[in-house]
Amino acid sequence: MLNKFRVVHNKLRLYKNFELLGQKAAIEFTLPSVSFCTPHLAYMGTERSMVMIASAATTRQFREHGENSNKFEIMSMATSGIVESFPTGALVPKAETGVLNFLQKYPEYDGKDVTIAIFDSGVDPRATGLETLVDGKTIKVIERYDCSGCGDVDMKKKVTPDENGTLKGLSGTTLTLSPELLALNTDTDKAVRVGLKCFGDLVPSKVRDNIVAQAKLKHWDKPHKIATANASRKISEFESQNTGEAPKLPWDKKIIKENLDFELEMLNSYEKVYNDVKTSYDCVLFPTANGWLTLIDTTEQGNLDRALRIGEYSKTHETQNVDDFLSISVNVHDEGDVLEIVGMCSPHGTHVSSIASGNHSSRDVDGVAPNAKIVSMTIGDGRLGSMETGTALVRAITKVMELCREGRRIDVINMSYGEHANWSNSGEFGDIRRKVKKNSGYSSRVGDLMNEIVNKYGVVWVASAGNHGPALSTVGTPPDISQPSLIGVGAYVSPQMMEAEYAMRDKLPGNVYTWTSRDPCIDGGQGVTVCAPGGAIASVPQFTMSKSQLMNGTSMAAPHVAGAVALLISGLKQQNIEYSPYSIKRALSVTATKLSYVDPFAQGHGLLNVEKAFEHLVENRQSKDNMLRFSVRVGNNQAKGIHVRQGVLRNFIDFNVNIEPVFFNDKETDPKDKFNFNVRLNLISSQTWAQCGSFLDLSYGTRSIVVRIDPTGLPLGVHSAVIRAYDTDCVTKGPLFEIPVTVVQPHVLESDLNTPIFEPASSKGDNSVEFQPNTIQRDFILVPDRATWAVLRMRITDPNRGKDTGKFFLHTNQLLPKQSCRKNETMKIISVSSDHETTTTFRVKAGKILELCIAKYWSNYGQSHLKYSLEFRGVEASNPNAYVMHAGKGIHKLEIEALVAEDILPQLQLKNAAVVLKPTEAKISPLSATRDVIPEGRQVYQNLFVYNLNVAKAAEVSLHAPIFNDSLYESEFESQMWMLYDGNKALVATGDAHSQNFFTKLEKGEYTIRLQVRHEKRDLLEKISDANLVASFKLVNFLNLDFYENYSHCIVGGRKLAAAVVRRSTRVVYIAPISQERLNKANLPAQCAWLSGNLVFPKDEAGRRVALHSFTYILNPAEKKTNSSGNGNSSANATVAAAAPAAVSANTTKPKAPATPPAATSVNPANSAAGDGVTTQTDTPPEGNGSPASPKKGKTNSDEYSEILRDFQCTHIVKCEPEMAEKIYNEVVEAHPKHLQAHLLLIQNIEATQLKSAFPLTFTNGQKSEKPVGENADQQKEEQKKLRSALERVIKLAENVIVETDAEALLSYYGLKNDTRPDAAKIKTNMDKQRNNLIEALSKKGIAIAKLAVLDDSLKDRLADINDVYTHIIKFVDANDSKAIQFALWHAYAHAHYGRMYKYIVKLIEDKRTREQYDELAAINSALGHEHITAVIKRMTVSSFPSTYRLF
Q1: Which DSSP state fits 319?
Q2: Which of 120, 239, 738, 888 is the most interior residue, by most CB within 10 Å?
Q3: What is the 3-state secondary structure (H, E, C) of 1153-1205?
Q4: Distance between CA 561 and CA 534 in Å, rounded?
């Protein structure tokens, strides 16, 4: 029996600490109403209504008068711990940073007159708390843009509706505009624009899956289960009526069984693909008196009165729901050419916005600045799974600039997004106006614009520092760009958050999260400005089906600071106090609460303090430095700070530091202000080992000082210092700028014959280190030479922990030149116990400092004593270019050295084959004149590259552009997006900055790749017009190379090297090149340039998993082949010598088709698609530059001439107009009455000129369509007459071939097991030719008979004739053979065998997919009554055959 109770608290709070009640003797309590389920009363087990609350001072009685006036007694044990009110204030924390006190003190400074731009995944204006400002009326989300291009729809096509308001949508659906909608159209020609949009672009994949699952349950499951059950029932009935084995059934019964099986197979196949089917909607756009109006046909029925009707968001603030919860809005660009549909690629942006500015009925769950407005800028691209792109960032920045210039000022940008750059200082060093040498700096397109939006437009940019700690130098980009102009935020968790958000059983002291990224930046700058609460249970989009969610990360800390900045600006505006991004950042830094017990590298200047920051801004409102910043540049690399981490430090180091004052909007600053500027500074170092002069007199210009770092007395580990510059006229306002300094003194392990092992210093007897929650232990170790991997061993030494485990965050990191902090790191959470030793192995780089960072996870209770050690091991090849092998150089030598004696078992495994694609087109053009122009008038251009790829066999492929890849924020160019399309222009895959490791399964076929690179400087785009694309194919079977210890054995393939031992001396081994035979069997892609994989040396299993060396095997250049005539001309389709049987061709131009030898099957490319798909057997000689072949033995020159003339005439029967073709045909037949190919070629001509290719149901439905009247009726009769005549002629021509072919002789020949005659090969060629001609003639005849039967509505009457053709064909080939499949399709239709029809269509699709095939599949299912499948196939058709390529 279920026991439960419901407690509704009205007035009484039941305190956990009952002593509180005893302190208030005169309090009267009202009992909350309590109802219980019968027959049991929850856990109290009593029927009395006496309720007792006990305290140390008093015992009080409370009565509840229920329906039966029963009395219940509740003892203190039962009520202990029940608290009436929830700590809602900690769900969206604000008390920690003084926000609550600030708003209580200044309630009018709640974000009023402030706008925050959210650079994120999109904001849902319908989410709870984001609908209005505090007045309950004014729209909060005032602008909404998708800057990524994912939501763009090409609307260039204009269509004028007919008099009934109907038009054809791009999906093929007939769309109908009502008179009301037609009247709204203000276009001069009454034309409308049409486009098509894939629904999957507008929502995250998981949300799409949920929506699809609901639609499947609602519209699919029931009819499909019924259809499947019926199909299974038919099979059972057939089997019960036809006993025995299926292969022994007569042919007519066999095809019935096949049909039933294929029907069931069809149903099962569509069940499997349902979730992957994409839904696309017709879009209609036209101008109205109130701006552009968008109609989106989400019903897919064409009635636009029921379509979504949306105006431009900027003018109407309209949103509409695509389904019950997904809200979208629209914008229009380029005078209607582009429709931008704004969805959301994740819930992230809405959650962020709610923290910054949520406005709720309960102030406890408000955002930080509830009265601030929001501008949503989507920078996450749904095509990339929500990753940001350079295009999106530049468009978002450009839009902010435009809004600022239009007077709709953006005050704050919040960006809880970012990546790690391969080098710090992303962005141009110095200002555009300054003559700064950039020979050592790195220009970044995106970084430049970030600096410009702050320095010129005065927008305060707040960025999350990243969630990549706890190791040092893990701050992301942004905020790590060339100038410290952005506010970087770390993540803090308070005790109140632990209780309310994480349901922790005990509160722990407030601290930063373990994973929040740490300073310094790689170049020594400070990336974290302040820290703030990094978790919240806040609003999320409606499509999540949830009102709010818990999210944590610096993504949540940044909007807290952005909201706090909005409060400050709101107050400053209302007090008319001038400010700049510099004064705001300086105030936050100076007034932050430094947390002495918290990791200094994670908190920046400390925990945000809004109250003090505002006081600082007000008190220093007249300060002369409010409108300027101080540029601090260190050394030739123009670093933002001093970072010494290159080895053992034994001497002092001097650094030149350039300091320069830079005014806000420097170009427009009054020259007098520059001339009059002067500040006298006192420089104070926080540590004695960082020294500089004490005073600096600074005017407008650059001053250089020397900072001396003396690390000689520093103990091992990491040390930080700050040199602060104070204005001697007003020291109390805090430092004007800082020079951050970080120095690392590493442990150096003794080099001897023993394995180097590091153990931390410990004061414990068991050599353990004590860890409390969030304790961080950092050890810096100089990795020994030749070390390639390390083994970390950990164990809890507490004897009383039993099976309890400690949860530790392991983060190892080595900073490598010009590479991000993620290139050589290990991050994992490890559970460690006292029962056994926990071992972790990871890769290391010799000669570089390794940070071994072990942290007890912030929420892991209790004290732990951890004993750990780090053992270094290593073996590697030391000779130059050891890991690159050129096949052309033959044998490859490796000089292997080990750290200490090491067992090796070398293995070289090549896994990928790379093909270099050359662009077939590279076109530079200006982009949108309204969307891609940076103020003022800086037009952005694109260089659009096109590459071709032909895949002859299914393969997994990754694509990347080498000169752009793996760089985003540090790139000179702002975009490198590529899109891969199949032969029907359907989008298959999309990639951007980090695409080299993502593989896509590609089916056989031809593909086009379009790559877009953007920049405002056209000349830079011109320099990259030859940029290559690399396609990397996963090999089905990896290639393993052999190792030899002896050079001679390597040459002759002698004894191979197995396991061996490498001691302190060098050991030489050799690798033999891959044989031609093995390369041929590997089915490498044509034009394969190199193979790549991994080389591993250690025998140790753990070492083999991590000590991997990337290896490249460069193949020989492609061989040039001469043609068969021996004239020396090279083939246009040269293949790689090492890859003869190519699996994939990736030519940038289409290869020439090889000449067709005599008696081989040839298909006229101009006409094969127009006929019914059966090829013609010809004797046409090869075309080419070579001279005709010598006369055949036994033939005179006259005979040879006659045959050549005949063959030449035959080639023109197909090509010529009908009258000329008929004339040539008659001449050939008259001269060569036994030349049967002439009849088949004329059939091809008839099919191409007089018969329209159509599948059975498509053809039949076309004949049954509504009959015209009047002149149209006469015209149709004439067309029917011509069609009938053509079909009858086809039958007659086919009969000529059938009659003249000895079918019995063919059957006798193919019944031979072995042909031992001397000319067996010649006989086989002749017999194959006759057989193929016969099959083709039978197929043509059968199809023509079936079509005539459809015209005469006599299909049943002609069934015997059709069966007769079918039985003749299957004597020679299977029905699904390519030579017979078209007729087999008609035969299946004649018998209403829709399952067989499905199978044949699927077979055709495998060769080449066409829209007509999909239409036939839809007709098949419609004929079966499977309308639910028909609807799905129509969706598949729309998405699989778009009319144009997608917009970028």
Answers
A1: -
A2: 120
A3: CCCCCCCCEECCCCCCCCCCCCCEECCCCCCCCCCCCCCCCCCCHHHHHHHHH
A4: 10
pLDDT tops 70 at residue 800: no
Q: What share of the chain is helix, strand, coil (3-state, %, to 5)?
A: 30, 25, 45
How many other C-beta atoms can be found within 10 angstroms of the C-beta atom of residue 1190?
Answer: 7
Among residues 49, 110, 120, 480, which one is catalytic?
Answer: 120
Active-site pick, 224, 348, 351, 747 = 348
With CA atoms as reference, report the closest residue to 483 among 452, 518, 440, 459.
452
- Residue 1019 makes CB contacts below 8 A (sequence gap 6+) with none
Are 144 and 125 in contact, with CB atoms under 8 Å apart?
yes
Say how far apart CA 558 and CA 1182 lie, in whole Å.
72
Distance (Å, whole) CA 430 – CA 337: 39
> Which of 67-76, 822-831, 1154-1163 shows the lowest per-residue confidence on average (mean pLDDT)?
1154-1163
What the block records as the tokens of 555 is: 């993504």
Is residue 240 flagged as an active site residue? no
Q: Is 704 among the catalytic positions?
A: no
CB 469, CB 518: distance < 8 Å: yes
Residues 1209-1237 have pLDDT tens digits of 888 888 889 899 889 989 988 888 888 98
Q: Look up the pTM and report it.
A: 0.86
580 is catalytic: no
Residue 199, pLDDT score: 87
pLDDT at 1150: 37
Reported as a single tens digit per residue, the pLDDT across 1281-1291 is 888 899 999 99
C-alpha span between 1265 and 1357 (Å, rounded): 22
CA distance 814 to 851: 6
CA distance 491 to 607: 9
For 1402-1438, how does the pLDDT look when each residue is reduced to its tens digit (9 = 90+)? 999 988 889 999 999 999 999 999 999 999 999 999 9
Q: State how far the Cα of 970 lies from the Cα of 482, in Å rounded to an integer.
A: 10
SS (H, E, C) 1011-1080: EEEEECCHHHHHCCCCCCEEEEEEEEEEEEECEECCHHHHHHCCCCCCCEEECCCCEEEEECCCCHHHHH
Task: Name, in order, each residue with C-beta under 8 angstroms of 514's C-beta and a sequence gap of 6 or more.
Answer: 469, 470, 774, 776, 809, 855, 856, 857, 858
Instruction: Sort 998 into a burial class: Cβ within 10 Å, 0-12 / 13-18 / 19+.
Output: middle
Distance CA 60, CA 52 (A): 6
1194: CB partners within 8 A, 6+ apart: none
Q: In whole angstroms, what is the distance from residue 1093 CA to residue 908 CA?
A: 7
Please provide the average confidence, as pLDDT, over all residues in the chain: 85
**Cβ–Cβ under 8 Å, residues 909 and 1040:** yes
> Amino acid letter at 1408?
K
Contact between 234 and 260 under an 8 Å Cβ cutoff? The reply is yes
Residue 726: strand, helix, or coil: strand
Do 1085 and 915 meet the contact criterion of CB atoms below 8 Å apart? yes
Spatial contact of 1123 and 1064, defined as CB atoms under 8 Å apart = no
Q: Spell out the residues 6+ positions from residue 817 whose beta carbon is closer than 8 angstroms to its own.
A: none
Q: Which amino acid is at 847?
A: G
- Evaluate if residue 69 carries a pLDDT over 50: no
Rg, Å, the chain Cα set: 39
∠ CA 885-889-895, nearest 5°, is: 55
From the list 346, 354, 386, 555, the catalytic residue is: 555
- CB-based contacts of 236, cutoff 8 Å, min separation 6: none
Give the H/E segment covering residue 838: strand 838-843
Helix (H), strand (E), coil (C) string for 1267-1323: CCCCHHHHHHHHHHHHHHHHHHHHHHHHHHHHHHCCHHHHHHHHCCCCCCCCCHHHH
657/707 Cα distance (integer angstroms) = 7
Confidence of residue 12 (pLDDT cuts 50, 70, 90): very low
